[in-house]
Amino acid sequence: MVNDTTFKKKDALVVFSGGQDSTTCLFWARERFRSVEAMSFAYGQRHRVELESASQICKKFGFAHRELPLSGFAELGGNALMAQMPVEGKGPLGLPNTFVPGRNLIFLTYAAAYGYQKGIHDIVTGVCETDFSGYPDCRADTMIALERTLQLGIEIPVKIHTPLMNLSKKETVELARDVGALEALAFTHTCYEGQFPPCGECPACRLRAKGFLDAGVVDPLLARSHSI
Hints:
The protein is α/β, with parallel strands linked by helices. The protein has helices at residues 20-32, 49-61, 73-76, 103-118, 140-154, 169-178, 182-185, 203-215, 220-227; strands at residues 11-15, 35-42, 64-69, 122-124, 159-161. The chain has nine helices and five strands, in the order βαβαβααβαβαααα. It has a five-stranded parallel beta sheet with strand order 3-2-1-4-5, sandwiched between helices.
């Protein structure tokens, strides 16, 4: 990892879903880089609410934001984030059926291509291999290999930053607190069912709740939902 003191001379692009992890990364990046831009992807996901959350957070907290359309994932189908199917099943290879094959690889490739045009070589993503889901495109070895592939294929010094890679959900909540992201987390979206207030029952809701409980921090999203 590059020493933090060198970041202030650079700009960063954050792959931004509007969820808890990417919002934490957005504020992590703002503390370290000269300027930060967020990039979200409209890839035919089951619930557009996450894109609405991303736009709202960036407007409210002063981040430049670009939403990029991506087609093809919906046509491929076969997972619960693209189609109406239960979110707790298993896919054909035993991974959770919320796994969208190739999604993070494609997002980061597009981000690097956009960075090429803008002179931005530092890309931040909220992937985490300690997450319960075990998605293979969230592992450190995948990110290392993809970073090297992008460096070779685009011929710019791409650096993929993964500040959450080895953190538990408890530690992610603590990091969000430390970088001043808690207020923004009130406007994030995590629920696989696309609900607000969140359903509290899907795997994503349960994992989020455990992180806040273990950290001893009240989830700002729940606090906001109770105030409405």
